[in-house]
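Q: Okay, next protein. This is Amino acid adenylation domain-containing protein from Paracoccus alcaliphilus. I've checked the sequence twice, so it should be correct. Can you predict the 3D structure?
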Amino acid sequence: NEPPIRVTLIRENKNKHKIAITTHHIAIDGWSLPVFLDELFALYDAPDAELSQMTPYADYIRWTALRPDTEADDFWRDQLADLEGPTLIAPDAGGQSAGVTLSRKLDATATGQLESRARDLGITLNALIQSAWGLYLSRRSGQRDVIFGTTVSGRPADLPGVERMVGLFINTLPLRLRPKPAQPVSEFLRQTHDRLSATLEHQHVPLSRLQRIAGHEQLFDTLTVFENYPSGPADGDAADAALSVERHSQHGGDATHYPMGLAAVPGEALRLTLSYRGDLFNVEEAGQVLDSVETILRGLADPSDPKLGEIGLLNDAATDRALTVLRGAEHPRKRQSLPDLVCEAARHAPHATALISAEGRLDYAGLERASAVLARRLAGAGVRRGQIVAMLLPRGIAAITGLLAIMRAGAVYLPLDPDYPRDRIASVLDDAAPALVLTDRQGVALASGHRHLLTDDDTPFPLSAPVPHPEASDPAYVIYTSGSTGRPKGVVLTHAAAVNAILSRAERYPRPEVSVLLPSLAFDASLAVIFGALATGSTLVLPEPGAEKQPAELVRLIGRHAIREWISGPGLWRAVLAEGAADLSSLHTVVLGGEAIPASLIATHRQSATADLWNEYGPTEGAIWCASAQVTADGKAQNIIGKPISNMQFLILDASLQPVPVGVVGELYIAGSGLAQGYLNR
């Protein structure tokens, strides 16, 4: 119920007063304020002064009422055609909140470069600002078609006296931009300039009508303002020495409808002000947005006219930080193969138990001998260094021996699960074309049409001379992807990549001591369990095939063998916890991977087990694993993949392969010594 304009005179002493003018936007907009103050100060200085005739605001109302809607609607219908949806920086924002602002000024040199660029291209500085915000939104959201609000003066050029009218004229219009990474900056800037110019012909259309035309209740949640208002006495000391008027400050506060807005004020040093909702963003995030906008503006001002895709969101210093913060420790590795790690453990403790299964036990010395003999059998069968040897064996001592033998023969290990569908096995064998299939009598039918060697055949077989030692750069194994996104692909990993992954386990987790092999041999997670145990002289327990489908049996297995380390997917661990926690006290480490860990599972784990819980991440193309994070008691790191392992690096990049700031969505890229050699036959 208060008046829209209030004036308060505050006397400090007989020669000094302050005047406080409080206005509502419904009465005066940013353009009108200097006009209003100009006349106010003129009358204060000379109460009898004759002011120029002011065109009443009612003329503007009549002008809008007489404007035909058809032409404007057709224009906006074309502008908003085929819009898939809004561009939202805070899609879950609701209600309103007090706005917070953060400002900065570009230096005079950068401002001059922007103005020079605008002059050279025949565009306005406003077009540069709008282009920068559109490019920022595109990079932040990953959308190639973005839309945001821009505030226009709303003063039609063909309305006489409109420049001196006082009232609310401003309007918010949607600005739709489609930045393309390969597009030259100059072309994009001119497109923005032309689009802005075209919208001014139809700037009187209310936003509510534009939303109906577009068919979307909401089009955007960010706003830009270019405050190019006319100047007046309010901008400095009055020229008349008889009246010394100084503008001290202007304060404003309101409940903002938009989560974020960017205002630009031209001058010798361009001022950028970011307004944002304090309940949605903090000051660090706001500063990061301004950093990105400034970086983009500097890129747009580059006279060499780069492509849009060459302009990132981070300046050089921030890029360096982004490239180092997600980098694992640098640990030089010896040039070793995977079997070297096991043979080294065998030399240190030859009589320690390496394998336990229903068949019995095998110590490290026995495993080393058996794998060496089988490696010579493979070589005697014609297997040569670098050739693929498929292994089609159930989980057991023979399978672990066969795996080591294939690698010790210099061949490339290709695991196949006998429980897989025949079509899947046949498809992989046809694609990989192995030199040999290592199998047993039960699996020989699945290897039909391929040369094979039986592990359970006692027939004397010629042994070759000592087999060549595999090099670290040689391919160690091929793991086929699930094919969930298309045809399964064989991922080729070198010994060096795999050795780095295995040695990194010892750097992050406690020594397994006693571990249990649960993943299928066809999954690379099995290699983490096998070599994580055997490279550290620990004992590897091999459950009967199918045991992973019997949680109660697994609980008994943990208690029977005092299992210390557990590696599986979240689903299997949930099933084990559901069986009871009485026999889980031996576990010191539980590593879950392959999918997100539900919060309910974390809570159950805390109630039923005392082991440390880890969330592990890594695609097959990244040599088994790339990162892990310990899940704390409060459930943090539930879906955090953690910091990269040694000699590996993460990069979060946008569609133009530019690093993105913290909090901005991008794609995860993995670099380092653990990367795959490539895809087999591709």
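A: Here is a summary of the prediction. The radius of gyration is 35 Å. The chain has 18 helices and 27 strands.
Q: Noted. On to the next one.
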